[in-house]
Structure formats: structure tokens, C-alpha cells
Specification:
alpha+beta; 6 strands; elongated; single chain; 328 residues; two-stranded antiparallel sheet
């Protein structure tokens, strides 16, 4: 007996299919015929293809505006509007605005199951198209006189002269060539907002300026990253003096400059300080006029009535009477 071959598989391995497997059932009702040129279009997005298939399945007169489609599907109005523009660009859709007899303006949408390529072009200029030259005349036959070449149209290159004596000028026929319509000019970039200057005090006070200088020079004790140079201290001291002039305490200014700083290293600590001094400047405290307080109420020593006076005693009425004894 022959030896048994153990390398042979015990049974045939099942074949695993790759890709998609179609199980098609023939439709007899409620179906729409769609061409593969749309469903497999390589330039359209999946949103545009889905919109085209949905619109072709709708009956005539159905609403296919952006708001109605956005209410029907999960996509927003922006994606649906972009998909409709794609379908217009590739000839599957056309939209035009029409005015009804009552004056209302509506959008009329036309859907094509075949893309429309020959759309009318605007702004066309005639361009000469060369045709086949006329055949040479038979030997001995009289030759037709040559016609003078027409002057070239404005803005077009002149027609080249014939290369041989036996060839006549070609007949030209106007051809419409679309001219690109220039789009709107791009809007100019907005000019950057000018940076506001640092605040300055209304009056120069040497004591207040010294307090501001000491405050700025000692900020590194709160945060080592806030070590300012002498030039930056002299530049920022008037701004701190403006804060002190408005009634802000030095400790409040220090807390404003050092609180809430980012954790990463500060490349320009003086820029951070100047930004906070400029943008967080408190308003000026309005001055309240000082009014004289009235005198307190006193009890009259003669009639025991209340009257206003700076010190206890008699009222004006009792002070005029001479029959009252003097207060002890």
C-alpha cells in the first residue's frame, strides 16, 4: 500500500466572496429608473447624488426648495444648497425665478434624468471657423477672380493669407465661444484696529509715581516670570500712576496684574502687563459735591420744644423773652 499523504487538506476550503454581493428583486410598483452615469458619477458628492435620486423619484409639482429638503433629511441647509449647486453645474438640475400673476416671485426647478450639456451661453463673440478649401479648377477653365479679404473684427487676430496661389481664402462662419464672466472683486481685507495708548495720569505726582515704580519692580516676588527690565518699568509706571490717581489701591493693582496668568512660560511679560493696564482700566470716580449737614435737634430749655442748634440752649422764640430765668 502507498503511504498516506498528510499534507493534503481533509476537505475543500469554502470560497470567501470579496466585495459586494447583489440580491436583486424585480420591482413592479413604486420604483424609479436612474442611470449609472448619475449613481456612479465621479465628480458629484454623495449628498448631490442622493439629492438627484430623491428629486427624480418625486412626483411633478413636489416642493424641492432648500428649506423643504432640509426638513426632510438630516443634512442642514448649507450642505443641501451645495449639493443643488453641484447638480446645476453638471446639468442635472436647473432653477430659474419666475413671477406669478399676483406679483409673487417663485423658483421653478427642472430635473433632468440625463445631464444637459448644451446649455445656452451668455456673452458670446463670433470667431471665424476655417472650412475645407475650394477644389482647384479644371485645366483650361477660367479661374474665378479672388475676393478681397474682409478686414478682421475688432479684438480678433487677422486671418492668415493663403500659402499657394491656387488656394483661395477660406470661407468663415461665426462660432459662438463663451467668454468667462468676471466674478465680483474680492472684498478688501479689514484694516487692523489701532492699538490704544497706555493710560496716563492727569497730574504728575512724584509720590504716586514712586509707588508705581516700586510696585512694577517688585512683581517678580509674586511670580518669577514677571521680572521686568528698567526700561519697561519706566514705560509702564505712568499707566500704574493713572490707576492710583483713580482711587485704586496698590494691592488691587498688583492683584490685577498677577492673577489669572497662563501656566506656560511668558515670552513678553511687559506686553501682558501693558495689555492689562490698558484694557482693565477702571472708570474715574465721579466727584460728589459736599453738602452741609443740618444741625442736630435740641430741646429748648425754656419751652421744651425741639429746635436745631449746634449746642443745647433756648430756641429763638424763648431767647427773645426776658421773663424766663437764665439756664443754670
Amino acid at each position: 500500500m502507498d503511504t498516506q499523504n498528510f499534507s493534503a487538506p481533509p476537505c475543500a476550503q469554502p470560497r470567501i466572496p470579496r466585495g459586494v454581493t447583489h440580491i436583486n428583486v424585480r420591482h413592479t410598483t413604486r420604483f424609479t429608473t436612474v442611470g449609472n452615469h448619475l449613481t456612479q458619477h465621479r465628480a458629484l458628492s454623495l449628498t448631490a447624488i442622493g439629492l438627484a435620486v430623491h428629486i427624480q423619484s418625486l412626483p411633478a409639482g413636489a416642493r424641492v426648495d432648500i428649506k423643504s429638503l432640509a426638513a426632510r433629511f438630516l443634512e442642514g441647509e448649507t450642505r443641501i444648497a451645495a449639493g443643488l449647486r453641484e447638480l446645476e453645474a453638471h446639468g442635472y438640475l436647473s432653477r430659474r425665478r419666475e413671477r406669478l400673476p399676483n406679483g409673487r416671485v417663485v423658483t421653478h426647478t427642472v430635473s433632468y434624468n440625463q445631464p444637459q450639456r448644451n446649455q445656452p451661453q451668455r456673452f458670446a463673440v463670433p470667431v471665424p471657423r476655417p472650412t475645407a478649401p475650394e477644389p482647384d479648377p479644371a485645366p483650361g477653365a477660367p479661374r474665378k477672380p479672388e475676393r478681397a479679404a474682409a478686414p478682421p473684427a475688432a479684438g480678433l487676430p487677422p486671418t492668415p493669407a493663403p500659402t499657394t496661389a491656387t488656394t483661395t481664402a477660406p470661407h468663415t462662419a461665426p462660432v459662438l465661444v463663451p467668454v468667462p464672466v468676471p466674478g465680483p472683486a474680492p472684498a478688501p481685507a479689514p484694516a487692523p484696529m489701532p492699538k490704544r495708548p497706555l493710560p496716563t495720569p492727569g497730574t504728575h505726582d512724584p509720590g504716586r509715581h514712586h509707588t508705581a515704580t516700586v510696585l512694577l519692580a517688585s512683581l517678580h516676588r509674586e511670580d518669577p516670570r514677571l521680572l521686568l527690565s528698567e526700561r519697561d518699568v519706566n514705560r509702564l509706571a505712568p499707566a500704574v500712576s493713572a490707576w492710583l490717581e483713580r482711587g485704586v489701591a496698590p494691592e488691587a493693582v498688583r492683584a490685577t496684574l498677577t492673577s489669572g496668568l497662563p501656566r506656560e512660560p511668558l515670552r513678553h511679560p511687559a506686553g501682558v502687563m501693558s495689555h492689562r493696564l490698558r484694557e482693565s482700566l477702571p472708570p474715574r470716580t465721579p466727584t460728589v459735591p459736599v453738602t452741609a449737614r443740618p444741625h442736630p435737634l435740641q430741646n429748648c430749655d425754656g419751652c421744651d420744644r425741639a429746635f436745631r442748634a449746634p449746642e443745647p440752649g433756648r430756641c429763638t422764640r424763648c431767647g427773645r423773652r426776658s421773663d424766663l430765668p437764665e439756664a443754670a
